[in-house]
Amino acid sequence: MTRREMLRQSGCGFGMLALADMLHAAERTNPLAPKKPHFEPKAKHVIFLYLNGGLSQVDSFDPKPELTRRHGEPMPGPKIKTDRASGNLMRSPFGFKRYGQSGIEVSDIFPKIGEAIDDFCVIRSMWTDNGNHGPSMLKMNTGHQLAGRPSLGSWLTYGLGTENQNLPGFVVLCPGYPVMGSPLWSSGFLPSAYQGTHIHNSEQDPEKLLQNIRNQTLSAPEQERQLSLIDRLNRKYVNRLGSQPELEASIQAMEVAYRMQAEAPEAFDIRQESEETRARYGDSDFGRGCLTARRLVERGVRMVQVYFGNFQPWDSHDDIMSHARLARQADPAIASLLADLKANGLFDETLILIGSEFGRTPMIQNSGLEKLGNGRDHNVHGFSVLLSGAGIKGGTTYGATDDFGFKAVENRVHVHDLHATMLHLMGLDHTRLTYRYSGRDFRLTDVHGELLRPILA
Amino acid sequence: MNRAVFAGLLLSSALSANPAGTAEFFESKVRPVLATQCYSCHTGSKMGGLRVDSRDALLTGGKSGAAIEPGAPEKSLLLAVVEGRHDRLKMPPQSTLPPEQVAALRDWVSAGAPWPEAQVAPKAASKDAVITPEHRAFWSFQKVRKPDLPAVQDESFARTPVDRFILARLDQEGLKPVRAADRRTLIRRMSFDLLGLPPTPEEVQAFVNDSAPDAVDRLVERLLASRHYGERWGRHWLDLARYSDGRIGAAVDTPYENAFRYRDWVIQAFNRDMPYDKFVKAQIAADFFPESEREAMLAGLGFQTVGPNPDDRVDVTTRVFLGLTVGCAQCHNHKFDPIPTQDYYSLLGVFKSSRDEQHPLAAEAEVAAYKKAKEEVAAKEEILKDWIIRQSEELALMLTRQTARYLEAAWRVQAGQADAAHAAESAKLDRETLERWLAYLSDRDKEYDYMDAWFAMIDRAGGPTNAKIDDVRREAQRIETLAIEFFTEKKEIDDRNYVKLGGAKGVKDEKTRQYANLDFLEPKKFYFWRDLTTEPYRKDGFNHEGGIYSYGPKTIARWLPAMWLQHLEESRAEIDRLKKEMPPAYPFYHVLKDTEKPADIPVSIRGDAKTPGEMAPRRFLRVLCDGDPPKFEKGSGRWELAGSIASADNPLTARVIANRVWQWHFGEGIVRSPSNFGQLGERPTHPELLDYLAWRLVESGWSIKTLHREILRSSTYQLSAAQDAANVAKDPGNRLLWRASPRLRLDAEALRDSILMVAGTLDSTIGGPSEAFSEKFRRRTVYAKVGRTKPEPTLTLFDFPDPNTSTEQRTLTVGPMQRLYFLNSTFVAEQSAALAKRLIGAASEEAARIRLAYNLLFGRDPDQDELALGVEFVASGERQWPQYTQALLSSAEFSSVP
Predict the structure, then answer these.
(1) Which residues of A touch B873 (CB under 8 A)?
(2) What is the CATH code of the structural domain delimited by A43-205+276-455?
(3) What are the sequence ranges of the domains in chain A?
(4) Does B124 touch chain A (CB under 8 A)?
(5) Interface ipTM above 0.90
(6) Which of A86, B114, B494, B623 is the right S-S partner for B338, CB 3.0 to 4.6 Å?
């Protein structure tokens, strides 16, 4: 019997209640204990590199010769709605080159990703529903465009627990906050143990990064003495009260907390990496975020999400040339992360997703909000994401947009499909990973989601 | 009459000779059994492939074949499984039907199993769903009635009606309640429960020594009368109301400075025991209250206005007050509950006919004065801003025409002929501008090639020192010509765009600009222009610091001639004066008002507003009305909606709140899906108890405090948390309440508030604007600012819910991150120190201090062993005391409530 069936039946009668209660108790006492997936997983960890603001597909991973040819002409065909005034077609200012065995074309602003392109699957036919950042970011992170649902990382830790009990299971790195903020990594109605731990990674000193990780006044022996007193008092209390498994767990948590004090700062301390390594990732928040992500995954963290920057840096309405400057930070960071994961063997058990909430229009944006009409508006009809790592068929592309890169036309992939596929690679059936809340079984993919088999290795 | 019904009537009249074949028999004896015992699994969800909500469905049967054979009960599977004759199947799965129900089914099948109203089973996606008698027979749609008090074995336990219902069920399952809690445990439990704070040592002592028979009753009354009661119980409600100090749906936290007035209104409503029906009405339609009461109710509309989205309002209103997930019917008829899509749009029409408004809490004149002053300041600022922009542009054009001279001077500095000061002075140029040029020239990485020839000229000469003056001048002149050309072109484009936008008004209107097709300077030219001229701006995640010739509001003054400068200074002084004289912002309630023309809206097919369907008249939910509900006629219909919800005839409203009150006392509800009383919700563990409480609530004039009394005075509530092996074996989760389920950890608010209280640092001021959750914040947590996009990490750590959605029940986690908070946070360290100071100040002897600590924190004396441990710990001096108090605050006993 699945957990879901069991919980459902628990509503029907009395006999089944006991087991359901015990399951709930287990969730409370050690919610992050490793759990068995539905089936043999390909990946154990997820690293989600989020280029917040909206990566332009036609300037990065979806070259369109026809767009170049018809630069300056009106977009042919019926008018598709965009969020603001957009003008004629605008070619990419960047060149594209073929890379690797696969010969996949990559924009000149991502040369290092280009060199590693045989490890990536480029999905060129993504689409989503809402042209505003907030709702679309929620969709990409929680599968729903209103705030309040559990995020991908929360579902993963709920379904799988995490390997290292001395570190949070789901870590979100962002120097500041992306648009929408914490609802993007909220556990929604799942227990809050599954919520992402948000770290402002503009700091480098782990003691500033991690809340309450170090005692400011007590020496280690003093703290040990204090802990031993707490422990004795707690044991007495439990004896007096009689066996209460949840209390026992809360007492155990104290011991884990003590160990965390030692382990967590070390994990987050990228100053322990060599100069050479840090230089490879680049002197940027995103570079440091990618490096931290590697260290965390090495230590068994289930999911790490790295937001490129505060607010929405990739939102190049004004000038698509901004993408070149941003890519100068993103490209070496991503390539170095991949190279390091390959070197330490984690590549084969880590799923890497690089993407954003939507793409950008192939047309120029010429609304009066801009200083310079050299940018692109939001585009929900077609965009690209990259997948790499465990279970992903590298050196492939999947799906296609129209001749101009505007709308996904071949093998269209909705965000729900992407989620379903990611859960699958983690050993979870997206239709079975459910949580009963307010009398309904909820899931990340709601009632949608198709598995993208062709991209699986 | 439709054919199916007609056929049904024929059938029943043909069989009317046999009483078991009449429609009356079916409706009174058969359909209720099917509806209450079978429908939860055998309608839409078709367990085992079987539906039992039509004759056809029973005849077709499920995986095991036909469920009935009319006229032959012995051959009917239905009877075999309910009579326990089947070798594999037994229904209902967890219980047995009473003999009279089995007999009714048997008689009915014998009589040919007539189905008087051969209803067409509803199709999930049909245009207009049919609400069948089966739907209406669902438990939660039945009218609340006062149940008879059941007989019980142990009359001494059955102190109150609540106890009878609990005990009857325990008797039925062969469970025995454990012993009662001792007085210390009880007062601590009640204090946390009603106030979210521990009792003081004096209160504990007084209660322990109170031998009067009504000691508990008086304790209940004292706690219910406390002004801190509303802070605790109001907070429960705020979870449901998704309360926050920012507007829901905003991409970044948008302050909502008057939101707290709703929070305070809720707290006072609980303190004053506002009748719950009024409380509900105020949160939907306070603006319709009679004038004498209106002002006191208006703040209740904060429930709606904290979220601007009408869909969200339908969802929250129905879930919170009715326990119905009407929001599920937005795109299709509700898959499980009898809520057609049209009903959703009936309610949506009500909220779409309402708009947000401010209700000022100040005299009209005061409001007008504030608005006028604000507009005046804004207008003056706008004029001055425009004036400065014009001066900046003039200046930039003038400087552009000196470009060649600046470049030559810059070269002289680079060539070492003069320093910047002298070079500027001798060429009659501005030194700061020259220095900006020097900085510009020092970085050759440009986004355009206009400067390439200049750098090449320098390089050809082997550096600035060797460059020839003629070459420098020729290059400088070329660059100046380009700069003037681009500047002019930019100006022309701006003028054209100005016309396209419809002049000054359009230029300043965000919406006009958003959809205007404008012209722009070619990118390369723009970059060059930007580096020379632009004011500072931020775009696409980059900061542009401003061009070489850009002198804006902060830097323009020194360039202005005397009369101009005087104008600038006078204008600024005037604006400052006006700002100082401006009256403070007037306070207001966020309220709803009806729109000018309230109107019905059409159904959006599949939730898509672009494909409108039939109109949805504004009216109440059909399943909660007999026959077609009347249309709402007063304005938007909110008042009628409020009345339909807050009605004693509504089967859900009283049950839902009674269940919530129960849940907030016991941790779990009688129905464990407190915001879903529909098909997919849980069934009540004690349906009659729930009905009793709902009935009692209405009978008492919707008094929530009456419900508290019913619950708190019961033996059930006053049980100890003792374990009992026999009971555990049968009901390990204590769902039937044979003992008190210990509260494992105080919630975020109670935890923080209690720490402050025992440390003696709590500021117990009631109400007022929300305060930042800073180091200095010492008030009860309910008064802390609740952010939507940046939640307070400390609160979140202890399961404070996400305020973007209505929370029906807090989750409860215990993890190491929480322990780290106790071990290392500044807050706990400070409060431990304060507590230590308090103890030291109160007694000179160590043992006495320790005793006080135990009484403050745990409501009891330490035993010998605990005393010895404490004395030993603090033996080495006063520095040990804060460490000791921190250990006590960190202990499991402090934050759990048995």
Answers:
(1) 225, 229
(2) 3.40.720.10
(3) 43-205+276-455, 208-268
(4) no
(5) no
(6) B623
